[in-house]
Amino acid sequence: MRDTQDFDFDVLIVGGGPVGMLLASELRIARVDTVVLERLPERTPHSKAFGLHARSLESLDRRGLAERFRDGARSWSNGHFAGLDVWVDFSLLDSAHNYALLSEQTRTERLLEERAQEFGCEIRRGHEVTAVRQDDNGAEVDVTGPDGAYTLRGRYVVGTDGGRSLVRKSAGIGFPGTGGRVTARLADVVLADRENAPMGMERTQRGLLFCVPLDETYHRVATFDFEHGKEAGSELTLEEFTDSLRTIWGDDLGASRPRWLSWFTDSACQAERYREGRVFLAGDAAHTHFPVGGQGVNLGLQDAFNLGWKLAADIHGWAAEGLLDTYDQERQEPARKVLANTRAQIALMNPDPYVTQLRELFQDLMAKDQVNRHIAEMLSGVRVRYDLAGPEHRLLGDFARDLRLKTDEGDETLPEFLHRGTFVLLDLAGIPEVSAVHDEWAAGQEWAGRVRHVVAACEDEPGLAGVLVRPDGYIAWAADTSAPAAEIADGLRTALATWAGTSGR
Asked: Does the structural domain 1-43+104-178+267-348 have CATH classification 3.90.1640.10?
């Protein structure tokens, strides 16, 4: 390897899908020199994923991006769980974004790529990474591009390169899980009788059918076959797909003119760890599962929101000891829960008649608002809460809601203060110790602007003295006005040192 300080970029991102593009934009707003290396010369027009859930939309809103994604996109207030007849009601969510947004993966990728480019990120398409190496001080990748082979060196490499991740394999990170038993055959096709096509998820005695319109011409149609698998590496043909339709549905729906054919299984795997030295994993490189409930891309976007500011903290020299390790600690559990609920859905989708009574029981339960809300929170990601150290408080580790704030500038909301990816210290009760601790901490920092101190009144939380919100929107400290002043000061001082760090370069 070359000289340990001879870096071409701070961070090398391998894989230019939505997760890689979001991570790039998160790093660039924190002034981290970043490059994205994507093997495909052009963005793929096809999308397995086509929905954004509440937690993703909340997070995008905290970067001022929610309206960009909502513009021209359809939304809906319900979804399915295991194809049951009782719908999941997202309007029950306690969120400003209590709906699902139709945003195909290729559209999401484009919007996030535009965002990364707005902040000056270099994106190299048609550049395939062929090897990854690391030492104690950095990592480098071998790349084959349109003009030949070359090597890049960075402080860190992040693999967002999918379920067959070269980065993960190069780092020697295991990827245990369960093999595939269900084969899904998917196609974007024209249907002969568009007006009378089935809608949503339908269960039959032989499997399941999924069918939704994508535009005025094409439908997304998928069959879920519990009996007939496919040989690994084989291609799906239109003939095989229509045969599957006749087997599962009893009719091929007159499917023709495919613009995309693909297949996958219910294999579910999770990386043993998301970090190995200078190498990190995010998105499908860290976890794969059956794409039921529209959770995959959303899970990966949350990885990027969690990792970006932590890498920036380390690169700028102010990260407290162990900060980078919290990425793995915090993001493993949400993925485990997604893998668990997708496996549960597959079990409920099984066409075996013995499962029918279980489905009926589940539907009776889902008719109750409390159960329906629980499942809506699970699918949308809003149940995620991190187990953070610090003085116990009902809000600690939770995602900061859209608090309405009255400041000297007028009426504002919390997301507006997070657009630039900084910490936000909300001082809500005018307790002198809160301002004093912030000023004491800021006086010793070379880049004190990483914590934005906001003095405001908040009718939504009348008993709250203050909160420290991390750049990813999660609460790192909170205290009530009933707490002793010394306890408030000590808790805030510890939280600032733990999360907002020390003097940087």
From this structure: no
Q: Once rounded to an integer, what is the mean pLDDT over residues 240-254? A: 96
What is the CATH code for 183-265? 3.30.70.2450
The one-letter amino acid at 266:
D
| Coil, strand or helix at 455 | strand
Q: pLDDT-based confidence at 201, cuts 50/70/90? A: confident
| Cα–Cα dist 79/380, whole Å | 10
Q: CA 422 to CA 29: how far, in whole Å?
A: 9
**What pLDDT, in 10s, does the model give residues 315-363?**
999 999 999 999 999 999 999 999 999 999 999 999 999 999 999 999 9
Residue 7 amino acid letter:
F
Are the folds of 1-43+104-178+267-348 and 404-500 the same?
A: no
Would you say residue 33 has pLDDT above 90? yes
- Tell me which residue of 325, 328, 326, 322 sits closest to 287, measured CA to CA: 328
Interstrand relation of 122-125 and 34-38 (parallel, antiparallel or unpaired): parallel
Question: How far is the C-alpha of 171 from the C-alpha of 200, rounded, in Å?
Answer: 41
Smallest CA-to-CA distance from 91 within 101, 76, 73 is with 76
DSSP 457: B
